[in-house]
Design a protein that fits this description.
Elements: H1 2-21, E1 24-28, H2 39-44, E2 53-63, E3 70-74, E4 80-84, E5 100-111, H3 112-118, H4 126-133, E6 140-152
Parallel strand pairs: 4-6
Antiparallel strand pairs: 1-6, 2-3, 2-5, 3-4, 5-6
């Protein structure tokens, strides 16, 4: 009887510890870079990071509703960056909205005109055109071509 009580106590403590520590789910390669670049700094000096592998941390404020092929990670000041992954290779669940995430990949930029041309002739899908329509011509859209992420549940 004492042994069973001890076993139950251990299981309960382990479960409580796991809940307090927070469970996380790994996507793709996960996160291997130890240090994150602040999203604010990344967007303030994008040319310093273009073509480099970077990690960002923040709250998930947007997820592709159709295929889970991107998520928006936003810092405490409201600066956000989109993590775009290859369709079907990594799928971010819509239920991850509001959760904390770390994501990494190569920081890239595309001219707005090139992005708009890519979607020319497609139906007016908000997920596809959202980034295109928010910037005037001549500007760049910056994003992280994601290789992995860890989302705290």
């Amino acid at each position: 009887m004492k042994r069973n009580l001890m076993l139950v106590t251990i299981v309960v403590l382990l479960a409580a510890g796991s809940a307090l520590a927070g469970d996380s789910t790994r996507y793709g390669e996960g996160v291997t870079l130890e240090k994150a670049v602040s999203i604010e700094r990344l967007l303030a000096s994008p040319s310093d990071y273009l073509g480099q592998k970077v990690r960002v941390d923040g709250i998930i404020t947007g997820v592709c509703k159709k295929r889970g092929c991107w998520m928006q990670v936003t810092d405490e000041k409201g600066n956000g960056v989109r993590i775009k992954v290859e369709d079907g290779v990594i799928v971010f669940p819509a239920t991850s909205m509001g959760h904390t995430a770390s994501a990494q990949g190569v920081f890239e930029g595309v001219p707005v005109a090139a992005q708009a041309k890519k979607h020319e002739g497609e139906n007016n899908d908000v997920d596809k055109h959202e980034a295109c329509d928010s910037k005037p011509q001549g500007e760049m859209i910056y994003f992280i071509k994601g290789t992995g992420a860890v989302i705290e549940l």
